[in-house]
Amino acid sequence: MVETRSPEASVTVGDLLADGTLSATAAVLPRGAERRPVFWVHATEQLDPRPHLRRHELVCTLGSSIVRPRAAHVFVDALDEAGVAGIALGLGEVHLEPPEELLEACRRRGMPLLLLEHGIPFLAVNDSVLRRRSQIESDARRRETSLLARLLTLARDGAGEEALLREVADALGGEVGRDEAGGALVWRADGEAPSTAFMDQLESLLEFSNVEQARELLELQQRLGQLIDLIIGGLAHPAALLPEIESQGLDPDRLRVSFWPAGSEGAIGRRWANGLIGTTSREVALITSPETDDSFSSLGLVCGYSTVVSLGSLRQAFSEARASLRLARSRGGVAGPDQLASLDALLEQQAPEQLAPFIEQLVDPIVRADEIGRGDLMATLSAFIAEDRQLQATAERLFVHVNTVRHRLARIAELSGRDPLTLTGISDLRVAVWAAERRLTVRHRMIKPLGR
User: Fold this and answer.
1) What gap in Å lies between CA 221 and CA 278, rounded to an integer?
2) How many domains does the chain have?
3) Is 117 found in the same domain as 16?
4) Residue 136 lies inside a defined structural domain of this protein
5) Which tens digits make up the pLDDT trace of 190-211?
6) What is the CATH number of the domain that holds 279?
7) pLDDT digits (tens, 9 = 90+) for 317-360
8) 0.90 exceeded by pTM
């Protein structure tokens, strides 16, 4: 966080010259000297008061130490090296007019020289600095308060952090941004910084803005998700999404849908800033322009995507992407429509309870027969399927005679009621074997010790 603005730096030599209560005049005023900051006022009659001075102080003196030749040069040189704002010479006590040597020394060093009429106490100069400082701070507070009110209105109207900080920069003539860690606000400009109070309130306002934007984004994504569910269910037409699609700059004739796990909308939004995101009842839907298949792997999440479609075919694309996501969850990684056209892909999309009857009625009798020693029936069936129903290849795979394979397949037909030598029979048995193997795989994953 930046420090509070330095109030002293706000008062200038020009401010003192403009104060009618001082009636100060400028005997020497180098170009631009009226903008010199005045922090404090210091009175002294020492010839070399450097040990007691700070930068940007206005030195008030009656000039009692500069009556000797060359003394004024020593005095001015010392003050210039101390970095003071200027000299205020009180007339009437020691000098009725500024000594010529003092004028010469001030011109040589570019030192502002103010003249105070007799009777003006040096405390009046200090009071002028304090009064002007208070006025400047009061004006700054009013400007900051007005700016904060304007920022709050903008935030309520939906302005984000970037827009709010741009408004601050335009109003204050500087730049406010996050530090390198992306955390605290910092002031990046020369000159006076906003007050600490302003920066604290700005930080709170930005938090409010971010929360409001996040809430509005969540509501939008939920509303779009509900609309997508209605489209999938045939209760709404895809054209209902056209305003949102056009607002994102997407081409309604070339759209691609992808489905992602629930809770991934934040990562998706950062990756696809122009994408249209909807959170449905089960997952996150993303509508984008045509993306390369590889781009969906960039987040390291499971994902299912559709072919490229036009607006009117979005319902089909939603169903395709959702089916691809189910396949991706089963296999891991990313899946697309080209992977859906296979029996394995179809089976992987089925719920376990739908495949349970295949296991119970077709596989379990064969497994029980194997358990009582009836002869490697499951191994033979799996090999027969793997060898694409080739008897001789199956026999060679199992290191048995082909007649042994025939005998075992006949026994499988007897136990399961499905003949492996027919297309219908082997199709049913293949589904059953696939379901049984998948059940064993899932159970293995569930009981696998952590860390392995």
Assistant:
1) 4
2) 4
3) yes
4) no
5) 666 788 888 888 888 888 888 8
6) 3.30.70.270
7) 998 898 888 888 877 888 888 777 666 666 666 777 888 888 88
8) no
Q: Tokens standing for 392?
A: 């001789």
